[in-house]
Input
Amino acid sequence: MDVVIGAGLAGLSAAIHLAAAGREVTVVEARDVPGGCCGTAELGPYRFDTGPSVLTMPGVLAEVFGAAGEELDRWLPLRRLDPAYRLLFHDGSRLDVLPDADAMIGQVRELCGPAEAERYRRFRALLGRLFAAEWNVFVDADMTRLRALARPVALLRLAAMGGFRRLDRLVAAHLTDERLIRAHTFQALYAGLSPQRALGVYAVIAHMDTVGGVYFPESGGMHAVPVAMAALAEKLGATFRYGTRATRMEAGGDGVTAVRLNTGERLTARAVVVAGDLVRAHAELLPRAAADWRLRRPRFSPSCVVTHIGLERPLTGQAHHTLHLGRQWARTFAALEAGRPQPDPSILVTHPSPDTLSVLEPAPNLLGRGWDTVEDRLLARLDALGYGDLSRAPRLTWDPRRWAAEGHTAGTPFALDHRFTQTAWFRPSGAARRVPGLHFAGMHTAPGVGVPPVLLSGRLAARRVLKEAR
Output
């Protein structure tokens, strides 16, 4: 039997690929529902998504269902958001990120002028080339062995396109309007870094959402994604043990032997996929032989404060995603990297249903300070931005302390940051070299943070399990 620990998106992806290949699979999940980080919560009549709100690259999700011979649309119809984002700048100007290329170029022309629109058209093409150069070599690729990096032609191609420059410098070499530069560099925070520190290769994140588009389930919110995946895994024969915690993994000379549960049971296992917080797993669950040198001095991403608010009435003319960008750009990122709140916060406002609003502000993780002052300031900022006084509205808030209580080391739901020494092969390995049959999936492993990467990590883990079985 194969045991998958964790029913988040990575674990569900691994379980589906293994079950589709005919393996006997048991998924152990401490919560009572699937989803992991992609969770859900209720407050009276209001239901909130408590995890990721941005879904890009639906083809990756479709591939998971395709592995089982199923069509994604039959299980989980998605709609493409138009606009993907609405960007509101400190000077009062606005840019809607539109899914149609010509319409988007027209938006840039109207905001920034014809010369910048032409520069944007060329930059958009560059993003596509960067994406194509990286995808099969560094993103959808098994990075468990050092030889995965021995790709001189690919590295030279990326270098020639500026992939190893700093992200802000790469973008500024092609665009001149500061608003447009910010629109294509704020995504560095997804990698846990400032645009001044992130490598240019992370411009592909901007490609994923500004070019590839942003999607949303037609019903059920983002939590509908893991619900549909769990249902598919069960159809394929996988067994789910909800409300059950793995307490210890056992291994012998030949590798994995069993997983101990908090119920006192012992599940005999041929292979184990750990799909969760690897720092905690190595400290609490795994044998010493599974130790990974890459986790000796982990560097964590900043965290965030997310306030979910129940509304009496929908907001008129509100986009699904609205990003309010602050004026103090460089100082904002410098503060986060120093473990302090943003001096002039940029916030993401998501309005996924007529009666709910979710507001995210990046914040220091538990290794920093001042995060406990963010919620009150966030509500005041919403009022100043025209959303009204929401301080008395029904709300739930996730802050670093709550993220830590839900199992995220350092109180950040974004795991390790993506500095060069925590990227690709340098990120914690997806396989325990000294414990055959033990594999890892999720944000802490390559390719990293985000819905498409964690889905890929589950598929890569399943592939390794199946390869070992040959």
Notes: The mean pLDDT is 94. The longest strand covers residues 303-310. The chain has 15 helices and 20 strands.
